[in-house]
């Protein structure tokens, strides 16, 4: 059985309205973030992978299973929507426990799995309370508990960090990383791009229904050869270093960092630039650190899509 999520030329149209178009992906286990502004197709793509929508064209399989066989498919997929929709009057415990009963687990196993999921999201004390009295962050976490309760191999989570306070956010991110290490697929949609850098093994960037880039963030950035790469150099003599760098064609721009303890350099030729920097470091400039300054999702998305869309 394949361990990947495979989409082959998937398109989804709502009448004449485009949801996603001609998407082909092979997603390995780990944490994958779907990134893009509202309306880019993230939720449509997640609903397709969750088996809640059928594609207009193309073929999809999750760990070798097709949504056309829902009884088997939904045993390996867990899903949490970004929208709240809870049966009236249910407690957190009842919400998770009643969902597990649909899978036909034995009563003892149903109870054990429900408490296990509730504990993993830190809601044991709140579990007997009605969800109607939960905060936004608690509602997010009880949806996550339901999604993981049957121990799926694939988690599809639409904006799962919305509404979480800093502590709950850190704990939830730690849970995602733990699930990724266990070999699960954790698919997360987000438009808060700095979070993607913290949690993702790979990223899929979307715009207007199309996938515009995919892969590890550094790999995606490296494909954008027409855009200069920005490098932050921490050193003892930034002005002196800048004067030396300007003598070489690899450097497009160099400016002293605002804290006067480093230099921001833009280059079209990263590999040759790093070799040049090694040579300069042997000639009187003490370089403390060198790091790409735009290997983050926000920078990459602006390169690919344009800053205007990221602010919508």
Summed up:
By secondary structure, the protein is α/β, with parallel strands linked by helices. 37% of the residues lie in helices and 27% in strands.
Write up this protein:
It is built from twelve helices and 13 strands. The strands form three sheets. It has a six-stranded mixed beta sheet, with helices on both faces. The chain has two domains: 5-221, P-loop containing nucleotide triphosphate hydrolases (Rossmann fold, 3-Layer(aba) Sandwich), CATH 3.40.50.300; 228-293, 2-Layer Sandwich (Alpha-Beta Plaits), CATH 3.30.70.920. The mean pLDDT is 86. Helix content is 37%, strand content 27%. Helix 3 (92-101) packs across helix 4, helix 3 (92-101) runs parallel beside helix 5 and helix 4 crosses helix 5. The chain is elongated. It is an alpha/beta fold and 312 residues long.
- Number of discrete domains: 2
Question: How many beta-strand runs?
Answer: 13
First-residue to last-residue Cα separation: 41 Å
Number of helices: 12
How confident is the prediction overall: mean pLDDT? Answer: 86
Class per helix and strand makeup: alpha/beta
Order of secondary-structure elements: EEEHEHEHHHEHEHEEHEHEEHEHH
């Amino acid at each position: 059985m394949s361990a990947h999520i495979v989409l082959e030329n998937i398109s989804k149209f709502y009448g004449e309205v485009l949801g996603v178009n001609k998407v082909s992906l092979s997603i390995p286990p780990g944490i994958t973030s779907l990134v893009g502004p509202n309306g880019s197709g993230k939720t449509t793509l997640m609903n397709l992978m969750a088996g809640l929508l059928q594609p207009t064209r193309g073929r999809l399989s999750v760990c070798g299973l097709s949504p056309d066989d829902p009884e088997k498919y939904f045993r390996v997929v867990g899903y949490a929507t970004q929208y709240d929709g809870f049966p009236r009057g249910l407690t957190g415990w009842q919400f998770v426990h009643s969902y597990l009963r649909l899978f036909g687990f034995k009563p003892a196993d149903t109870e054990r799995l429900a408490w296990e999921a509730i504990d993993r999201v830190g809601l044991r004390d709140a579990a007997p309370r009605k969800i109607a009295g939960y905060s936004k962050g608690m509602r997010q976490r009880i949806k996550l508990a339901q999604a993981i309760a049957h121990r799926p191999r694939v988690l599809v989570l639409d904006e799962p960090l919305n509404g979480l306070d800093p502590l709950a956010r850190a704990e939830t991110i730690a849970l995602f990383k733990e699930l990724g290490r266990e070999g699960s697929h954790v698919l997360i949609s987000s438009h808060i791009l700095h979070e993607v850098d913290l949690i993702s093994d790979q990223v899929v960037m979307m715009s207007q229904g199309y996938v515009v880039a995919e892969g590890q963030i550094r790999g995606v950035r490296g494909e954008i050869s027409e855009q200069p790469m920005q490098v932050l150099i921490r050193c003892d003599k930034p002005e002196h270093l800048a004067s030396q760098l300007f003598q070489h064609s690899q450097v497009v721009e160099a400016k002293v960092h605002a804290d006067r303890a480093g230099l921001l350099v833009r280059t079209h030729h990263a590999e040759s630039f790093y070799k040049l920097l090694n040579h300069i470091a042997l000639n009187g400039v003490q370089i403390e650190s060198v790091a790409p300054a735009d290997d983050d999702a926000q920078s990459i998305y602006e390169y690919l899509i344009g800053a205007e869309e990221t602010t919508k």
